[in-house]
Write a structure and sequence with these properties.
Layout: H1 11-14, H2 18-28, E1 33-38, E2 40-43, E3 46-52, H3 60-72, H4 96-114, H5 123-128, H6 143-160, H7 163-180
Parallel strand pairs: 1-3
Antiparallel strand pairs: 2-3
Helix pairs in contact: 3-4, 3-7, 4-6
């Protein structure tokens, strides 16, 4: 396997499970680079996806989450740092940020399925959404009710983003990257 595009990622990371090997196969056939960074970046026209989450440097879930954002975003945002997202200066009036992250988590679950891991749970990711700036706009009187709303939205997105749709969009984005990197 050619690990040259996996900057600063030890080869042992990619071979530690079938999931990691399958993920490596997808990324190695694309112009995507992987680094120990939080989120996503663009340098010299190259898309870089990160493996850092909090204090963990090699978190496969972070990498798959960023891959899910790639599937979810429109083509105009692919080469924008941080996917072109901006942190709101004022308190947001919508649930747009939460809904985007829920959509991304649903796609993330589908990517896990594509990679052969059917038992990944979205629970922790859905709970963490209470940290987003638009959290209080999610319908519900308390966190329990807001979580149920997020769960309902997740179930709708999960049905909408079926395996075929995610696979098709992932291949389309990788083709786009190959033509434009």
């Amino acid at each position: 396997m050619d690990y040259s595009k996996m900057t600063a990622i030890p080869e042992s990371f990619w071979g530690c499970s079938k999931l990691h090997e399958n993920l490596f196969t997808i990324i190695s056939k694309s112009p995507i680079k992987v680094e120990i960074i939080s989120g996503q970046d663009v340098r010299d026209g190259t898309l870089i996806l990160g493996t850092r989450c909090g204090f963990k440097n090699l978190e496969v879930n972070s990498l798959i989450h960023e891959l899910a954002h790639l599937v979810e975003i429109d083509y105009a945002r692919v080469f924008k740092p941080a996917w072109g997202f901006k942190f709101p200066e004022d308190f947001p009036e919508t649930t747009q940020g939460t809904r985007r992250e829920i959509r991304t988590i649903a796609i993330q679950k589908r990517i896990y399925e594509i990679l052969g891991k059917d038992d990944w749970s979205e629970e922790d990711d859905l709970k963490a959404l209470r940290l987003l700036p638009d959290y209080l706009n999610v319908p519900g009187k308390n966190e329990e009710e807001r979580f149920l709303t997020r769960r309902k939205w997740f179930n709708q997105e999960y049905l909408n983003w079926n395996l075929e749709k995610v696979n098709k969009e992932l291949k389309s984005k990788i083709n786009f990257l190959m033509k434009n990197s």
